[in-house]
Design brief:
The complex is a heterotrimer of chains A (about 375), B (about 375) and C (about 160). Chain A is an alpha+beta fold. Helix content of chain A is about 50%, strand content about 15%. In chain A, helix 6 packs antiparallel against helix 7 and helix 12 runs parallel beside helix 15. Chain A is globular, with a radius of gyration of 22 Å. Chain C has 2 domains: about 35 residues; about 100 residues, Alpha-Beta Plaits (2-Layer Sandwich), CATH 3.30.70. Classes of the chains: A alpha+beta (about 375), B mainly alpha (about 375), C alpha+beta (about 160). Chains in contact: A-B, A-C, B-C.
């Protein structure tokens, strides 16, 4: 009896462990967070991943290079186009194909549109995480306009599969330029509304400022990239440091903040939407003439060797690493996915905050679960 | 007897115009009471009257609850650029009835290791608290179930009983999310009761009575929100905030906080028991809104501007019940507007808002109001 | 004193920011013209998909029930997840030669990921994307489709 009482009073016994997920409204997918609580305060968060593991990397070993692309769509489904681009760029790098400017510009515009729609969906779901349900509908309403542009040109809305080694699948639709211009005009008017609804709101400030602070040192040592890393002052924009496609031709500034808390991660993404619109505006009126795809061999075989290319997705740095043994199938494919790395920091920054803050921090890291598990 | 009590406080209508007499329900209730007294004994009269009133309130409860669910879905849809329910019936007005029928036939899932008795008791406590509060509300001139001389106090006391049901539901569900939700709700309601009470006391000072019918009557020549200068307005705003918190609605819906606790205290409930919680939430909203309408916006009293007799007579043509429902729905609409705009607060911020902001402002406000009343500066 | 002023300032700006937010939702409430909802099953008649929309893979036939598929099997090779299966047969042409021709072009819609590789790589442009998107069925078997119509033949001039 006495022993029992003793056991109960130990610290371990007093922990209140709840399983957030695999089915939970705030994990945006099948992520399971084992959260130890003391009262409402989070003592530790242990992410359990693998619920949506499909073995994409292994699957890539048995299919050809053009076929890999449609699998990468399914990793980070919100930046599907940029994922495609990572593989295409790696393959093109390996084959040393010269890519015409038109393709580069098309890819850049599409990437930036993808980035905007991803951030719109993030804004929508982040607002919902904080309890502002109206944000969700405004975000999705505006995202629909980009998806329509995608649908007209690529044939699909989200899982576009628009890139292929050596170019893109189809030429731009004749309406494309006009629609993109219309969208930018529209969204420049709507984006301040996002600020009025959420950014300026005093409740939002209270919920986000000082919550889940990630220092620059930690951001670098954990390898947190993307807007989450840049909010901590980690200059990690691949577009700026290792320009690919047409990013060396456009003027844009890397969004950097030093705050590193949930609020700055939020503001960094809002600012990125503005910057993405600037990039698109610079390119949309001068898309060079030319073919939309370089003629490639029917069976693409990469020369023996290892190839790596990184791109900046909406969530951070995506690296595609391909080892080829000279066959039409890769020997090994590895993706350095941003979400997997960004998730690793969750326990570090969520410790000591309330359970509601954990939801806000998780939302501000903008995790896409299929990208974590692959 | 019961209905006699109701009419005891009705106003003197000797010189009133005919429409005011027509809209006065006290003559109707009095004649029913007399008729019943003549046909049966005193005891059976009271029993019959109680049954009539009970059935009426039950019906009213169901109708208003269903309508409010529909209204909420429509209002939030319009605020979010959507259409909302639009399939069943014209503009989807039968949607909630279809939902209710579905909920009636849904399987009630038994919960392992749940405290069965408390688990089943909780929804009833929540819903009974709503019923009891409904009893004291003056719907129209002379349309009271019971007109107590401490009506305001009674409503505050009874409406806060719902939290017992919430706590029981959270505790007995044997679910960790439910328990967190229930404890949050407890902390929340205990603190926000204070603000609700103090905001109402501001008006009680102005009216000089706690009897709801007297409070309404005192607003014959102008609603308290106008009569009481700025303090009454501040009290109204504070009451709105605090009552939103008391009904567990967004941005204070921490007890159910969908993104954090899945559904909070009613996570484990299904079928009609869930419907009880759902209905009770809307009914509580209706009750706090009608208290706000009664105390600050004049209840069933038409909109009167002091000396404009012609204008006042035109306003008198609109039946008092319409005035009452209109005002109540306006307040409900305000509360829906809050819910669909703001993000949710965190539990410690919720308590900070109460103890650091609302309570001090409220106390100063009561003081100012008392001063104004003492000096006779109000209209 | 300063703390009191700061306190009042906090309250003022806090309330102001809330009102700004309420202005946004309130203004939408009173502008029903901004509603974007489509009444989907009711607007089926005038619902037009974009011409590149990838609804399903189809094999266009002309009015003489002829298609362009030669049964070469490139689409089957290129399909990343094996949704296409080609069953070929040998036929004798008019001039007496034996020739491989398509018997059945089996397309498993349930497995298809709409990567468009089959349509893109088809040497005779025999495949295309259809606009139909309402694919829900009660039986999985129904998602296995034969693209060439019964009795259809290879179009003249397509090799």
């Amino acid at each position: 009896m006495e022993e029992q009482v003793k056991n109960i009073s130990t610290d371990e016994q007093q922990e209140y462990v709840i399983n957030m997920g695999p089915q939970h409204p705030s994990t945006h997918g099948v992520l399971r967070l084992v959260v130890s609580l003391k009262g409402e305060t989070v003592k530790s968060v242990q992410p359990h991943i693998g619920y949506i593991h499909r073995g994409i990397e292994k699957m890539c070993e048995s299919i050809t290079y053009p076929q890999i692309i449609h699998l990468t769509d399914r990793m980070d489904y919100l930046s599907a186009h940029i994922n495609n681009e990572a593989v295409c760029l790696t393959v093109e790098k390996a084959l040393q194909v010269e890519i015409p400017d038109r393709i580069k510009v098309i890819r850049t515009i599409m990437s930036e549109l993808t980035r905007i729609q991803s951030h719109q969906l993030w804004w929508a779901s982040f607002g919902m995480d904080l309890g502002g349900l109206t944000c969700f509908f405004y975000g999705l309403r505006d995202r629909e306009k980009i998806l329509d542009i995608f649908e007209e040109t690529c044939g699909s809305r989200m899982i576009v599969s628009y890139n292929c080694p050596g170019g893109v699948m189809y030429d731009l639709h004749p309406n494309f330029q006009q629609k993109v211009k219309d969208f930018i005009k529209y969204f420049r008017k709507i984006l301040p509304e996002y600020d009025q609804l959420l950014t300026g709101n005093v409740i939002f400030h209270e919920r986000s400022k000082g919550i889940g602070k990630l220092s620059l040192e930690d951001a670098i040592s954990y390898g947190v990239t993307g807007p989450s890393g840049r909010a901590s002052g980690f200059s990690c924009d691949v577009r700026k440091h290792e320009p690919y496609s047409a990013y060396d031709k456009v003027q844009f500034k890397e969004i950097l903040f030093t705050g590193g808390d949930t609020y700055f991660r939020y503001v960094a993404r809002i600012q990125e939407m503005w910057e993405s619109m600037n990039i698109i505006e610079q390119l949309i009126d001068n898309i060079p003439e030319g073919p939309y795809a370089v003629k490639m061999k029917p069976v693409i075989k990469l020369p023996e060797g290892e190839y790596y290319q990184r791109v900046e997705t909406a969530r951070g740095e995506l690296g595609a690493y391909i080892i080829s043994d000279g066959n039409k199938n890769p020997y090994r494919v590895k993706f350095r996915s941003p979400n997997f790395v960004n998730l690793s920091v969750l326990n570090h920054i969520a410790k000591g905050f309330k359970i509601a803050d954990l939801v806000a921090i998780g939302g501000s890291l903008d995790l896409v679960i299929p990208d974590i598990d692959r | 007897m019961l209905l006699n009590m109701i009419t005891a406080n009705s106003l003197q209508l000797v010189s009133a115009p005919w429409w005011r007499v027509l809209y006065d329900f006290s003559s109707l209730t009095k004649s029913i009471d007399e008729g019943l007294n003549n046909t049966m004994g005193h005891f059976w009269t009271v029993v019959t009257e109680m049954i009539i009133i009970g059935v009426l309130i039950l019906l009213f409860y169901a109708v208003i609850g269903l309508f409010l669910v529909y209204a909420e879905r429509k209002v939030c849809a319009f605020m979010q650029n959507r259409l909302g329910p639009n399939r069943i019936g014209p503009f989807g007005i039968f949607q909630t009835i279809a939902d209710l029928i579905k909920l009636l036939f849904v399987e009630m899932i038994p919960i392992k290791n749940a405290d069965g008795f408390l688990f089943n008791l909780a929804p009833f406590i929540v819903i009974i608290a709503g019923f009891m509060a409904l009893a004291a509300i003056p719907f129209a001139n002379g349309l009271h179930a019971i007109d107590m001389n401490i009506g305001v106090l009674y409503v505050i006391a009874v409406s806060s009983m719902g939290v017992i049901g919430v706590l029981l539901a959270g505790w007995s569900s044997n679910n960790k999310y439910s328990l967190i939700g229930a404890i949050r709700s407890g902390a929340q309601i205990v603190s926000y009761e204070l603000s609700v009470g103090l905001a109402l006391i501001t008006v009680v000072i102005l009216a000089g009575s706690m009897q709801l019918s007297v409070i309404v009557e005192a607003q014959r020549d102008g609603w308290f929100i106008f009569k009481g200068h700025i303090p009454a307005f501040i009290a109204f705003v504070i009451y709105l905030i605090a009552s939103t918190a008391e009904t567990n609605r967004g941005p204070f819906d921490l007890a159910e906080a969908e993104s954090e606790l899945t559904a909070g205290y009613h996570t484990e409930y299904s079928g009609i028991k869930f419907a009880f919680f759902f209905l009770a939430e809307y009914m509580n909203m209706f009750i706090v809104a009608s208290i706000a309408a009664t105390v600050f916006l004049g209840g069933w009293m038409p909109f009167h501007v002091g000396p404009w007799d012609g204008f006042n007579h035109v306003m008198d043509f609109i039946p008092p019940f319409v005035w009452y429902i209109g005002k109540t729905f306006f307040v409900i609409w305000l509360m829906m507007w809050f819910k669909w705009t703001f993000p949710r607060l965190r539990i410690d911020q919720l308590l900070t808002l109460e103890w650091k902001y609302l309570l001090p402002i409220n106390l100063v406000n009561v003081l100012i109001m008392a001063f104004i009343v003492l000096m006779g500066w109000h209209f | 004193m300063r703390s009191i002023i700061n306190y009042l300032k906090e309250v003022y700006f806090g309330v102001k920011s809330l009102l700004v937010g309420m202005k946004v939702t309130g203004s939408y409430f009173f502008r029903p013209s901004t509603i974007v909802t489509q009444k989907y099953p009711n607007n089926r008649k005038d619902l037009v998909m974009f011409d590149r929309f990838k609804g399903e893979v189809i094999m266009p036939h002309n009015e003489k029930n002829e298609h362009k598929c030669t049964g070469c099997g490139i689409c089957e090779l290129n399909c990343p997840n094996g949704s296409i299966e080609i069953i070929s047969k040998t036929i004798t042409t008019e001039d007496g030669k034996k020739k491989k021709a398509i018997d059945k072009h089996i397309y498993r819609l349930g497995m298809c990921t709409f990567c468009a590789l089959c349509v893109k790589t088809c040497p005779s442009n025999a495949l295309a994307f259809g606009q139909k998107f309402e694919h829900a069925v009660f039986n999985r078997e129904l998602l296995i489709k034969t693209l060439n119509k019964p009795g259809s033949q290879l179009m003249k001039g397509v090799e």
